Amino acid sequence: MIDLVSLGYLGLFISSFLAATILPFSSEIVLAGLLLKGWNPYYLVFIATLGNVLGSLTNYALGKWGGTIIVKRFLKVSDKELQRSSNVFNKYGVFSLLFAWVPVIGDPITIVSGIAKTNIFLFSFLVSIGKLARYILVAGIFSK
């Protein structure tokens, strides 16, 4: 397996993008590794947020243009995960996107948002706020 920490900013971008998709991945480990090596926390937070938001936009696009059939068949999102995320999205509306970073429900919420055809600018804004806040917190914990 590729050591994403050794790839620096590119490794962080890749891990952040993949972590925002339905794939089980953790960008926080790569971010923490780079922070502990003394890399610039501002650049790292920016790159991690950018990659993670672009990954969420990919989920949004899959939901919007692929619908539930594509999401269930190819992404292997279970009915239970999709229903749980739909319930959260329906209960809290677009503001649930602030929690798109939360494991288990976050990625499906971005897919449900695409299925619901949420305004792309509002989607991007809310997802970015939540993901940025999470990476700032991680950077605050692991910065030298």
From TrEMBL:
Cross-referenced InterPro entries: DedA_domain, VTT_dom
Pfam family, one: VTT_dom
Domain annotation VTT: ranges: 26-142
Assigned keywords, A-Z: Membrane, Transmembrane, Transmembrane helix
Full protein name: VTT domain-containing protein
Record bears the keyword Transmembrane helix: yes
Top-level division of the source organism's lineage: Bacteria
Keyword Transmembrane helix found: yes
Upper taxonomic lineage: Bacteria, Candidatus Muiribacteriota, Candidatus Muiribacteriia, Candidatus Muiribacteriales, Candidatus Muiribacteriaceae
Transmembrane parts of this sequence: 43-63, 92-115, 121-142
Listed PANTHER family: ALKALINE PHOSPHATASE LIKE PROTEIN, INNER MEMBRANE PROTEIN YQAA
